[in-house]
Amino acid sequence: MKITWLGTASIRIEAAGESVLFDPFVQLIGGENPNCIEEFAKEDAICITHGHLDHLMEAPEFLEEEGIGEATVFCGSMAAKTLSKLVGDMSNVVQVEPGTRFQIGNMRFLVREGRHARPGIGMRMKKLFSLRTFRYGRNLLALAYLHPKFPEGGQTLLYEVQAEGKTVLVMGSLGLQEGISYPTGADLLILPYQGSKNLEQEAMDVVDRLLPKRILLDHFDDAFPPVSDTADTRGFKKRMDERHPEIPVVKPVYGKGVEL
Asked: Contact at 8 Å (CB) between 190 and 168?
């Protein structure tokens, strides 16, 4: 099994002769890992964790004839509702919800309920009034226009992927629901490290509940300045070394595959 991080929360999983893409996103001007839609062109299956623009905005390209392909897009009802306003043909959109099971070749999927990270008003205001706002003003105007069109709607999904005798948990945002039992001991947890003023603690809370054998970070990069920024992962890795030295934490390099 091969896992490749393609910036933001975009993850490609290649296993059992299949290739599945999660949350493709083309970074805005000034993004830390500039990319293009053609880098996602080979996938026939796209899984969307939630409806925010940095997870869903590129999906129409995979559904329209004039786009880059005619992939099947798996997503929740809120994301599907957004897509229905953007594309005419929804025949390749498969709506899923927590508890849904599906299969792509020999890769098996179970959809679970996740929770979106909570940045807080203070964190948002700090970014809004930073000097970067003036540098990336064009991005800010675009984001202000697009963000309301891509609501999360309280619906963030977590995908459990099984293939080649291994289990991978793909989170769409840094949060788990209270009162829900999640599987422990996955071979790999893909952990988004972004979106909270208490990143280290919230990440540790997730790890304490899931206790994976290995962690691969994503969503830690500055993908849509000035709203995003580069998250410092050193504190989290230090706390992991202290509390869970048996769980390695991998901070991937853009486009470089990790074998599992």
From this structure: yes
**What pTM value is reported for the model?**
0.94
Tell me the DSSP string of the chain.
-EEEE-STT-EEEEETTEEEEES--PPPTT-SS---GGGGTT-SEEE----SHHHHTTTHHHHSTTTT---EEEE-HHHHHHHHTT-S--TTEEE--TT-EEEETTEEEEEEEB------HHHHHHHHTSTHHHHTHHHHHHHHHHGGGS--TT--EEEEEEETTEEEEEESSS-B-TT-------SEEEEE--S-TTHHHHHHHHHHHH--S-EEEES-S--STTT------HHHHHHHHHH-TTS-EE-PPTT--EE-
pLDDT, tens digit (0-9, with 9 covering 90-100), for 193-242: 998 889 999 999 999 999 999 999 999 999 999 989 999 999 999 999 99
